Fold these 2 entries.
Entry 1:
Amino acid sequence: MSAWPFPFWIAHRGAGKLAPENTLAAFRLGAQHGYRAFECDVKLSREGIPFLLHDATLQRTTPEHGVAGERPWSELSRIDAGAWHSRGYAGEPIPSLDALATYVIANRFALNIEIKPTPGLELLTGQVVGRETRRLWQGSGQLPLFSSFRPEALTGARETAPEVPRALLIDSLREGWLDEARALDCQAVVTNYALMNFETTARIHAAGLKALVYTVNDEAAAQWLIANGVDGIITDAVDRFSPAE
Ligand code: G3P
Ligand code: MG
């Protein structure tokens, strides 16, 4: 098992809600606030190019509609992913994973790639994101961290990039969640922070894994989680939580 690659504080979708999520402008803003580790959501274009978008559909964060993964990259790359947020970000494009990799590797930032497949494409998305991540990070001396709510996506990523550490994301303590993480050779479990407490961190640690949480924006909650042993916090509040490392 390779060394744990992550700083404690991780900026959610680049810079939380302060900039348009999952754009390079957001990562730049998060970095201006001192962040050196970032989470992003990645899915595939129609021809299989990994790009950043949270939702399966385009309407919340762009002027377009419909399933993003049904569009070719030639269309996706020209869509405005900034204007919905505020005028100053109008024209900010949807980035490819390739473009984000260039940015984070140049700055030696840590990246948590949440594999967020278009429904029905879980295994394929994991396989392709794994293959592309391996190619993009090769020779950089760094590795990102994969995470996903979808175990099939982590299975796919393990097939094509077994050396890249994996984390199982969970939003409920469903039957067998820790066994699932172990079966996928995960190095971490990332839970909704409402699920995490001393007992849960202790169970995760006893299995030899790290315990991370999303999305913590409240100071008292963060302090409580730290006291209960979490190994990392994903936050929107990049202007209020100053990363120590
Ligand atoms: O990866 C942690 C967090 O981003 C998971 O939830 O919906 O914000 O992608 P979501
Ligand atoms: Mg996410």
Entry 2:
Amino acid sequence: MNNILPFDNVNQGKIACITGANAGIGLSTAYYFASKGYSLILLARRKEKLEEVAHQIKSMYPIDILLITLDVRNEMEVSKAFSSLPEAWNKIDFLLNNAGKAKGFAPFQEGNLAHWEEMIDTNVKGLIYVSRAVIPLMMNKKRGFIINLGSIAGKQTYPNGNVYCASKAAVIALTEGMRIDLHTHNIRVASISPGHVEDTEFAMVRFDGDKERANIYSDFNPLTAFDIAETIYFMASRPNHVNIQDVIIMGTQQPTATIVHRNGRVE
Ligand code: NAP
């Protein structure tokens, strides 16, 4: 789970906004950035879970946290939330577009339309809405860094991955587009594309809570959410003239999207 890091106030006064912050990679990144002194804007739909996360983080690190409870698929709510941020919170330095999901795992010809809509609306349109709302705030500051959560699925299409893979390929293309359009505004843009990551709700969400189908990490050692948080912080903490644009990060036993050496949890 989350490694406990000592507090280091090196980013005092900086604000990081993390979408999908109450579980998995977003949650781990929230802890990591809190430990490095960032003030945090944490966003997700499940309010109680978000409040519990904020409570836990604050009990460990003396930082300020603002919670935004909304669905990134709702453009009106997204633009309203970011355009009405209190003055002390509208100078966002860092955005992690992390809210996202896979739903289902079926051949295209048997695919579930509702699953497809949910993935495209969250992974692609939600990311677009949040970015479009936050970028003007970064432009006002003449500085910022946006990291988009891609996936190895966006680089290597795999059987039954079809629409999830397409949504993550779109994240990579959007990252490239934002990078090109924003570089003259001193705003850095990057993507990170992990293979399998545990300590997340990803598989349970994909398989609609079916524990048996979601049991996909027991016979190999995947990445942890902490591994991704640590890498995201590394990217964010490079000097301002350095923009790591794209990272592919895989567990050692998983060289590609489809090849996993399931020979036990090798440490
Ligand atoms: P997770 O544990 O299920 O976390 C997803 C987060 O997104 C939760 O905080 C969830 O909170 C939030 N969320 C989902 N739908 C939302 C919506 N419509 N509006 C606002 N927030 C929403 O999954 P994860 O594995 O950490 O995934 C994070 C990102 O990493 C995703 O983009 C995923 O595609 C990507 N990724 C994951 C893996 C992996 O193996 N785990 C690998 C590669 C890439 P609420 O439900 O409360 O809204």
